[in-house]
Structure to design on (57 residues):
């Protein structure tokens, strides 16, 4: 799971940088932002699943 998160994060950064620097490729920047948002949601789900109710008595 962590490999997938790191791969998505890297892809988001690369797409965002290319889209920001290249003229006419602003849509690629938006795709990079979208991938980043999806990655952050996956991180939240991954971290939230590990907590559970173990600490309560």
């Amino acid at each position: 799971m962590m490999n997938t998160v790191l791969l998505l994060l890297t892809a988001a950064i690369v797409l965002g940088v290319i889209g920001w620097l290249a003229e006419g490729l602003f849509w690629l920047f938006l795709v990079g932002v979208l991938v980043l948002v999806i990655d952050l949601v996956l991180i939240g789900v991954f971290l939230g699943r590990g907590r559970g109710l173990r600490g309560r008595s």
